[in-house]
Amino acid sequence: MKSLRYNMLSMAVFAGIIFPGGVFAADVFEISGWIPYWRSEQGVENILPNLGTVTEVNPFMYGVREDGTLRAESSLEKPEWVRLKEEVQKQQVYFVPTILWSDADAIHATLSDSGNRAKHIAGIMAEVSQYGLDGIDIDYERKYASTRPYFSLFLKELNEALGTKMLQCTIEARTPLEDRYSSPESIPPDIEYANEYSDINRYCDRVRIMAYDQGRIDLTLNKKSAGPYIPVADTAWAEKVIRLALKDISADKMVLGIPTYGYEYNMVFNAETNGISYERVTSFNPAYAQELSEKLNKTPIRNSAGELFILYTTAELPENKGALSPARVRILSWGDAKTAQMKIDLAEKLGIRGVAVFKIDGEQDPGLWDVLKKAKENVSVSAESSYEALLSGADLMYGMRTERVRLLQMFLNKQGYAVASVGGGSAGNETVFFGPATRAALIRFQKAQGIQPAVGYFGPITRSAMKAL
């Protein structure tokens, strides 16, 4: 974003146009998804037919060595990534890979040293430049609180280096202290965090909250919830997390993470405390839970978190029939298309930028795409029904992404000034991106209407010409 704002402002002033407000509008609901490198072929194959549903794809593929140099877990030159990148460019979808780093010592050693930090940023920029990436997604987890100022400085410097490219920040969920601790007195007076939310808001174009892996961290919900309760992401908890983050992070940048997996636990009864503890056994995709349910002849039901779950003992497994070893009580809890819909509803209620799905690998609930498509269609219908907003709203210009751009493309296509003949921007396939094709079509319309200057800027003069038609 950054310097792009100034370039656009210069273009507008040069053309003798004054426009209000910011360059980037906030009325588009964004949908993105991480594609893991370990299932890149399946993930790409799964998302390609659904690219029209998403605004961004995130190859989950970079790691970092101890010395701060990037490690590509999968080459972007692999056929599936090349194919995906070609298709997203056609459909004007962002291609923003993710860097995951969770070595607290190495992160601190790299970011706290100006020389090492500069080398790390240079390595990131080399990848962005070599592969023509639209930006980068920073997912640095398990950092020390002492690393906080250096992480902020890193984001500042990376933001400057990226220029017009997008800087995403993916960060852990922060549970409100009153829910995390049993009483006000038990809250540590000197508690510190590893992320400075205000700085993240200042330097990042998008902030994605990983509102999952909740477990038992919310003591308030633990007490309120009936039955076994250890969810991946209760929507009630996710709302607390987002509302807390919104105190320091703009809703226009905020993105809610949606999990597509689940966890299996052993339930352990403690006779002394008359309580239950949970021991994680494994993580799984929905297909595993479905197969296990069929094997046990059990029907998954909704728990108080809204997730699907089943409860069984290991003695019920066919392979354990007649076994002498003690049986264990186990619980599975996982998200599906319905819980995804609940998260989308929450995002829309809170007025945040959108949602990000972790993960797209072909093993998520097959019904997920229908839910995501419905979310996009609802936004599109809403925008189309408020067509007057195109004529009365803020100006539109090159580089913007907003539903009003889709309306502009629809108008141009209908009037015979085709944005594109096929693919993104063509009739029935209008997009939210004001790119070269939209600008060229708008210039043709302006010239036909005798509008001067005909520079592809959608302002008061062009709106007046439209109203006169």
TrEMBL record:
Belongs to the glycosyl hydrolase 18 family. This is GH18 domain-containing protein. Residues 29-379 form the GH18 domain. Gene3D superfamilies: 3.10.50.10, Glycosidases, PGBD-like superfamily/PGBD. One of its GO terms (biological process) is carbohydrate metabolic process. GO terms for molecular function: chitin binding; hydrolase activity, hydrolyzing O-glycosyl compounds. Keywords: Glycosidase, Hydrolase.
